[in-house]
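Q: Got a minute? One more chain.
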Amino acid sequence: MKMNRVEKFLMNSPVRAAFQIWYEVPLLERLGGRTEGMRVLEIGCGRGVGTREIFRRFGAQSVYALDIDPDMIAKARRRLSDFPPERLRFEVGDVTAIDAEDASFDAVFDFAILHHVPVWQDAIKEIRRVLKSGGRFYFQEATSHFLDKWFARTFLEHPADNRFSGPEFVAELERQGFRIGEKWVERGGGDYVFGVAFRL
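A: Always. Here it is, folded:
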């Protein structure tokens, strides 16, 4: 589901961009390493802050970036117009029905998108399908611990059912054929889970 106006404002703010660039991205790099020369999928790319970091910090060769909101795709295209089309492609798309062949990507990035998906398990299944064997799934997610808080319940809009804790998210990844081991951490007292899982 799309973000409501409050969350969209917060996600487009300079504070969110700074946190993503200076905290989330370095943490994911420490957990999973760089993606030098790789073909990468980003789900829920928003206005493209994470997309640029996938090139700059992780060293990806090319990125296919999806978002369910056409307005966010338009913002991202404007923001990253300096990249040639052979390296960067934006499309409006649904993470539960990714328009890509099996084993198309070396890595997939998720900067807090799957908690918006009603049946997020279906999204994980699709991510696994489009990853090559041994491919990496980099994720940062908001958990039920955060979504149950007053602020989130009052001002943000998310699916009410089928939410997950950090350990539940990791367990579902392993159930669906990913190996994660110790490559994950919780932050914010359990509000967020970060990690890198490898497709078996």
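A: The helical segments are 5-11, 14-32, 49-56, 70-79, 120-130, 144-147, 150-155, 166-175.
Q: Perfect, thanks.
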